[in-house]
Amino acid sequence: MERILEINSLYKNYGKIKAVQDLSLTVNAGSVFGLLGPNGSGKTTTLGIILDVVQKTGGTYSWFGEKPGNESRKKIGAILEGPSFYPYLSAEENLKVTAQIKNVSYERIDEVLKTVNLLDRKKDRFQSFSLGMKQRLAIASALLPDPYVLVLDEPTNGLDPQGIADVRSLIVKISGEGKTIILASHLLDEVQKVCTDFAVLNKGKNVYTGSVEEALSNKEIVEVKAHDKDNLIKLLKSCSFVTGFSENHQTVLVHMDHQKNAFDLNQYFVANGLVISHLATNKKNLEEQFLEILSQSS
Question: In the chain, how many domains are there?
């Protein structure tokens, strides 16, 4: 699989503040890679470094297997800050200014406006746009050079629910067209809904990397109730595929080996003569995963 971005032992210090510490990660082609972490975790600083707008303290990174430079930068579209356009110009006129700066043909303007669902508003002034429309126009601007990679910093920050839904749908749409997307977010729901892979940053460090699918699929929790609770606890302690459990009032929450499920657990109880009055399966969402990862890395 082609590696789009590779970061090795990256550092960034602001005096005594260590914004990024020994950060290493890899982004593969075709993925939607999320940098997830609380405010101040180093997400924006990391994006600034790989886009050559923030000077690194140490470490290396490469784009497309090559040392970063002008050629690799041409393959990247990015939005690091909020949308910045001339308020009195129309969407089309603002994109013409961007096209001139990036030395891109005007012919792509209608195409990118169609992609972000703003083609019918291309003659309207930027100042008349909602925040969500402004963000979509910023994405259109980043798409003008037809980049291989799109880098977004907190793409739904400050938007209303409809704006958030529109931008998320747009990210999925652009990814489906074959572009690799790297986005920073502190919104767990955002990463869970649009990303294929993610890294959790905490205090500038990479404390977890993996696919969203794997992170969620292996975290099954089974709720169990039995009239004979003492025997239930006894059997759970002796079960080889139970990795842990906790009591929640009358319910026991059971954690198991990822190769086992609720059916296996119920069979185990039946084989040992225990009658279960309640058994239900829950999946850990990314929020529970995220909080668990952060607590373990603190």
Answer: 2
